[in-house]
């Protein structure tokens, strides 16, 4: 089955959705495989939640390939979010490299390897019966009245709006 998987069917996910800088495409790919392999949707969701934590709060990319494809790298960064634009932007600032550099391409390729490896570890654990979710769901919809991570100041600065003003919000 896997050899015939139409990988090109997922090409649109590059650059955080056809270059829109939204969700990092590595997570689209990994989440799809997790959904296909695990038979229970709740397990898949817990695993994708764990993967989002790993992606957001681990210094990456930590993987070094045996054969360097495009460039040597020295910088790893903590994305703080699964959002492509912020993730790659924080790395670009730390590494002082432009988006179209070989270094940036290498960074995203190595990051993809890290995400694939973490996904394989979780799926192997699941297949052995030893997978336990590491992280709780964010519950931010209940807490804040809007889908979100707890990184409000990243975009809103100090003026974080409250969803309390919306009449349909019933806690
Ligand atoms: C990735 C950037 C980003 C992050 C992170 C973010 N927001 Fe927002 N949020 C926006 C944008 C953009 C809007 C649209 C309104 C605007 O431009 O201010 C918005 C709108 C909202 C709204 C509805 C508009 C309003 O003024 O009532 C609420 C409520 C809100 N955000 C709360 C939050 C909270 C709470 C958090 C953290 C838990 C958060 N946001 C995190 C970018 C973000």
What keywords describe this structure?
171 residues, mainly alpha, 6 helices, globular, binds heme C
Total number of β-strand segments? 0
Q: Any ligands, ions or cofactors bound here, and which?
A: heme C
Mean pLDDT figure? 95
* Helix and strand run: HHHHHH
What is the CA-atom radius of gyration, in angstroms? 18 Å
Count, helices: 6
Number of domains: 2
Percent helix = 40-55%
Low-confidence region ranges: none
Distance between the termini: 45 Å
Assess the beta-strand content as a share of residues. Answer: under 5%
Structural class: mainly alpha
Describe the secondary-structure layout.
Layout: H1 25-37, H2 41-57, H3 84-95, H4 102-128, H5 140-144, H6 152-156
Heme C binds at residues 83, 140, 144, 146, 148, 150-152, 154-156, 160-163.
What can you tell me about this protein's structure?
This protein is an all-alpha fold and 171 residues long. It folds into two domains: 134 residues, no CATH class; 34 residues, no CATH class. Helix content is 46%, strand content 0%. It contains six helices and no strands. Helix 1 packs parallel to helix 4. The longest helix has 27 residues. It is globular, with a radius of gyration of 18 Å. It starts with 24 loop residues before the first helix and ends in a 15-residue tail after the last helix. The mean pLDDT is 95. The site of heme C (HEC) has 15 residues, from helix 5 and helix 6.
């Amino acid at each position: 089955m896997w050899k015939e998987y139409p990988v090109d069917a997922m090409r649109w996910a590059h650059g955080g959705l056809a270059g829109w800088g939204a969700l990092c495409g590595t997570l689209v790919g990994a989440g799809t495989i997790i959904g296909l392999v695990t038979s229970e949707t709740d397990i898949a969701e817990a695993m994708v939640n764990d993967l989002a934590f790993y992606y957001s709060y681990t210094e990456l990319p930590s993987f070094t390939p045996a054969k360097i494809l495009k460039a040597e790298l020295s910088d790893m960064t903590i994305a703080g979010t699964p959002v492509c634009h912020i993730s790659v932007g924080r790395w670009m600032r730390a590494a002082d490299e432009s988006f179209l550099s070989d270094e940036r391409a290498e960074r995203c390729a190595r990051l993809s390897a890290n995400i694939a490896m973490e996904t394989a570890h979780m799926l192997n654990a699941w297949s052995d019966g030893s997978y336990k979710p590491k992280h709780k769901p964010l519950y931010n919809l209940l807490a804040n009245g809007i889908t979100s991570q707890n990184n409000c100041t990243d975009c809103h600065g100090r003026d974080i709006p409250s969803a309390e003003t919306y009449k349909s919000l019933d806690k």
